[in-house]
Structures are given as structure tokens and as C-alpha cells.
Amino acid sequence: METRRVDQDRKLWKYIIFSALTCGIYGLYFMYTLVKDLNTACGYKETDEDKMSPNYIIVVLLTCVTCGIYAYYWWYKQGNRIKTAGREYGINIEDNGSTYLLWFLVGVLLCGFGPLIGMHIFLKNLNLVCKAYNDETQGGADQYAANFNSSTDYQNNYSQNNNNQWDAPAQNKSN
Questions:
Q1: Which residues contact 103 (CB under 8 A, 6 or more apart)?
Q2: Quick check: pTM over 0.85?
Q3: What is the distance between the alpha carbons of residues 51 and 74, in angstroms, rounded to a whole number?
Q4: Among 14, 56, 71, 164, who pairs with 63 as Cys (CB 3.0-4.6 Å)?
Q5: 69-89 vs 56-65: helix axis angle to the nearest 10?
Q6: In degrees, to the nearest 5, what angle opens at C-alpha 97 toward C-alphas 95 and 100?
Q7: CA diameter of the chain
Q8: Which is nearest to 38 in space by CA: 101, 146, 122?
Q9: In terms of C-beta distances under 8 Å and separation of at least 24 residues, what long-range contacts does 119-122 make, across chains too?
Q10: CA distances from 66 to 17, 28, 61, 73 (A)
């Protein structure tokens, strides 16, 4: 199994702005990295390879051929994968495929903002799973905590030494 660092900081606003600026080219790149990271992070905990998402090109082509229907199925299926992977990583993810499907279908009635809300929730949950994957495979949280603690210890020792150094003459003057 491939253990590479995955993106754990996807933002919806980046997707919207850069897709608009590049006339949709960034959207294809975003989808490529999303599917790759989704398969890596969720696939790490899955035993059944049938749950893997197909290549992003297949997702885009099937969406075009089915007039968008496949996209709804894909978001539903991947939402369930994220929920299952979150459970395996020890993360409580309340949203599942039905949540995304409702936001995409019924949310269109909210002046078209429903799919954006659904995608935001999807990315938020995917970021959580990707962070857990990075922490588990790369030692992210433990390594960060170790570095933070040693850095904090260094700062505390430094400030104590400096305080003692400067406090000593002040104590001598008062005597």
C-alpha cells in the first residue's frame, strides 16, 4: 500500500476561484488530486478494493454521459467511504452519503448554494480523514507534539536562565 503524504487542507474557495480563473482546468486538477488522496486515505483502512473510486477521468466521463446522474452516485458512495474510514481512524463523522446527496439535490432550491454547502462538508470531512491518515502513516501528530514540547522546554529553560541572569543583579542591588 502506498504511504505518501496527502493534502489535508482543501478549501472550497480555492476550488471556486481558481476554477473560474482557469476556465475549469483547475477543477480537473482538483478532482484528480481529490480522487487520488481519497483513495489513498480511505484505501489505507479498507480491505475491499472494490470500494475504490475510479480514476477521475472515468468519473468526469460517466458524469457527462449520464447527464450528471453518475456524479450524485459518486458523491453518495464516497461520502459513505469517508464516514467508514473516519470510524476506522477513530474520528466521529456524522455526515454520510445521504447528507451529501440531499445537499446536492434538494439544496439546489436554496438559490443554488446547496451543492456548495454539500461540497464544503465533504471537503471538511475528507480533510479530517486525510489528517488522520497523515498522522498515522507519517507520525504527524506525535512528531509535531514532540517538536513542540522540546521547543517549549527550550523556551522555558531559556526564559528561566535569562530571568535568573537578570534577576541576580537586581537582587544584589536590593541587598
A1: 114, 115, 117, 118, 121
A2: no
A3: 11
A4: 71
A5: 140
A6: 75
A7: 89
A8: 122
A9: 119/12, 119/15, 120/12, 121/95, 122/75, 122/78, 122/79, 122/82, 122/95
A10: 27, 18, 9, 11
Residue type, 92: N
Give the dihedral of Cα atoms 105, 110, 112, 117; nearest 10 deg: -70
Question: How close are the terminal C-alpha atoms of the chain, in Å?
Answer: 69
Mean per-residue pLDDT for 159-168? 46
Report whether 83 contacts 96 (CB < 8 A).
Answer: yes
What angle (nearest 5°) sits at the alpha carbon of residue 134, between those of residues 83 and 5?
115
> For residue 111, is pLDDT > 90?
no
Average pLDDT over residues 53-59: 89
The alpha carbon of 12 is separated from its chain's Cα centroid by a whole number of angstroms, namely 11
Report the C-alpha gap between 144 and 117 in whole angstroms: 32
